[in-house]
Structure formats: structure tokens, C-alpha cells
Amino acid sequence: MSAASASTLRASDGGAGLPRHVAIIMDGNGRWAKARHLPRVAGHRKGAEAVRATIRAARELGIEVLTLYAFSSENWRRPEEEVSDLKGLLRHYLLGEIEELAANGVRLRVIGEYRRFGPELARLLDDAIERTVGNRAMTLVIALNYGAQDEIVRAARALAEDALAGRIDPAAIDAETLDARLDTRELPPPDLLIRTSGERRLSNFLLWQAAYAELLFVDTLWPDFGREALFAAVADYGRRERRFGGL
Ligand code: FPP
Questions:
Q1: Does residue 75 carry a catalytic annotation?
Q2: What is the percent of the chain with per-residue pLDDT over 90, rounded to a whole number?
Q3: 199 CA: nearest ligand 1 atom
Q4: CATH fold of 17-146+190-212+223-236, please?
Q5: Which end of the chain is more exposed for a tag (fewer CB within 10 A), N or C?
């Protein structure tokens, strides 16, 4: 799609217009590899290429925040070899992409308990976050060892500690107070949540934040996702009418 098409997508015609925040459950790497008689890691590698293409396309569209579900708190149940392959890919990706991200004004944030990936990866992530903190073109949020229920529990615990210490009045706790304790604090909520590979589940992803998100389930396997698929998803979103509980 041409740059002209990107501006067409941006122009609102009474529909929802351009989403500020797109969140994606990247699913189907394993099936992509299986269909080609390749090891699962080959699907993840191709998935990392799809990540690159999708980030570029999101920047081209002018999306403010792109959140990618790279590793769930349940993914530790996978064989050790696959977990190690995913960690290796992430490390490789960060080392290879941080220059381009930084040069293109992308700010990196991570949600989830990423320190469980060990000190080396945590340091790489901390450095990348620190280095890009002032960037404004787009925020890339990577969900790592992320689970929405765990995130909400951690936020509730922080509120309970604040209440016990007398820093907050329990009667004053509202949605905003809890929101400010989530890993996503200060980010706008996702407008469009996409899941690839034909599965129709949220799988513990952004359960609080996606309260009013438009959901889009596409059959494309994640390694086949990219610019064209993101443009199509954003066009679909643009035709929707959002009511946020009103009429
Ligand atoms: C789901 O496919 C995908 C994942 C669990 C991992 C996502 C990781 C990447 C796209 C690569 C690295 C990420 C970054 C940010 C560089 P699946 O394995 O569950 O596929 P299946 O359901 O077909 O088995």
C-alpha cells in the first residue's frame, strides 16, 4: 500500500479513524513451522521478521503505541529448549534492532516480570528502555513474562501496602488509582486488539486495559503478518463505530 493509502487510513470518515494503540497477540509461529516440516524455532525466527515489518508499518501509519505479546507468564510451561530459543531470539533481536529503533524515535517499554529472564537479558532491556526514554515517534511495548491477572494482583498488592502504610484512603480507590499501578501506567488503553492464527481468546492479555478495545481475530499465522495485514486491520478498525457503553 502506498503512502497515500496510509493517509487515507488516517482520515476519519465518521468511523473510528486511526487507532492510537494497537495490541497484538502474535500466534501461530509453531503451526507455520509445522506446515513446512521445520522446527518450531524456525517459526519464531520468521515471527521476529514479522515483528520488524509490523513495527515499521505501525510507524508509517502514525500509530502511537504498539504492544506485542512476546512471552506470556504461561509460556514457561513450554519445553526448556523452546524457552531458551525464544530468549535467544529476543536477545538477538534487541542487539540487532535497538539502533534502528532509537534512530527512528521509537521508545521501548516492557510490561510483565521480565527480570525472570535473568540478569543479562534484563540489563539489555533496561539499557534499551533507558536509551529510548526520550523518543516520541512511537512507543513499542513488549510484553515479556506477562500475565494480566498477575499484573492486576501486583497492582492490588501495591494499593494494599499503600493503604496499610496510610498513604492512601481505601475509600478513595477507583479505576484510575488502580490503573496507575499497572505496568501500562501512562499509556492509552488499546483501541484495537488483534490475535492472529484463527484462535479467539484473550489468553490473559491486557484484561483490564482492553475493556473497550475493538477485537479482531485474523486467520493469518503470525510469521505471515506484516505491513499489508496491519494496514488491513487498521482499515477494518476505521470502519467500526465505537460507543464505549453509550448510544
Ligand atoms: C506464538 O506462536 C508465539 C510466541 C509464543 C512467541 C512470539 C515470539 C516471536 C514472534 C519472536 C520474538 C519476539 C520478539 C519481540 C523479537 P506459537 O508458538 O504459540 O504458535 P502455535 O500456536 O502455532 O504453536
A1: yes
A2: 91
A3: 22
A4: Undecaprenyl pyrophosphate synthetase (3.40.1180)
A5: C
